[in-house]
From TrEMBL:
GO cellular component terms, A-Z: cytosol
Domain of life: Bacteria
Name by which UniProt lists this protein: Pyridoxamine 5'-phosphate oxidase
Keywords for this protein: Oxidoreductase
Length: 169
């Protein structure tokens, strides 16, 4: 279910005086167009794990792929809590976004096909996938597709500093 307009609150203690919330549409545009994201998961022993990856934002959800034996897939099997971040690595301009949520495997053929197409549209032919039995496929092997259902997000506007919290769930 897509999020239309979540509740947005500026944190005055972390923002310039009189700062206004960053519009949710700006956050969605960044999530939709970013090329690189950072995924934070929790290892079974409780230690954090962070890795860069490619993702697709669609209908209020983030989607990511990973091999079944990769650390992030094993972490998600034990604990589905995640943080996904993206933005600009600059201090004085741009927008950084942090999305907190829960990840779940996607195995429905129609959703797998739609996301395979979305990856190819966004990232080009090197990221073209086929659809197998509950997985995406490439010459290199099979990939699991995960959907991140967001519960909260934060926007960190730079330049005119404003930290905005969005309650999504």
């Amino acid at each position: 279910m897509p999020v239309s307009e979540p509740t947005a609150t500026v944190a005055p203690e972390y923002s310039q005086p009189g700062a206004r919330p960053t519009p949710w549409a700006d956050v969605v545009e960044l999530l939709r167009t970013a090329e690189l994201y950072w995924l934070s998961t929790v290892r079974p022993d409780g230690r954090p794990h962070v890795t860069p990856l490619l993702a697709v934002w669609r209908d209020g959800r983030a989607y990511l792929v990973t091999g079944a034996e990769e650390r992030k897939a094993r972490n998600l099997a034990a604990n589905p809590a995640v943080v996904l971040t993206t933005g600009r690595n600059l201090l004085s301009e741009g927008l950084d976004v942090v999305v907190e949520g829960t990840a779940a495997r996607v195995v429905e053929p129609a959703v797998l096909r739609a996301l395979a197409d979305a990856y190819a549209d966004k990232y080009g032919p090197d990221w073209a996938f086929g659809v197998g039995d509950g997985v995406l496929t490439q010459e290199a092997g099979e990939a699991l597709l995960f959907e991140i259902v967001p519960s909260r997000a934060f926007g960190f506007a730079k330049g005119e500093y404003a930290q905005t919290r969005y309650d999504l769930g």
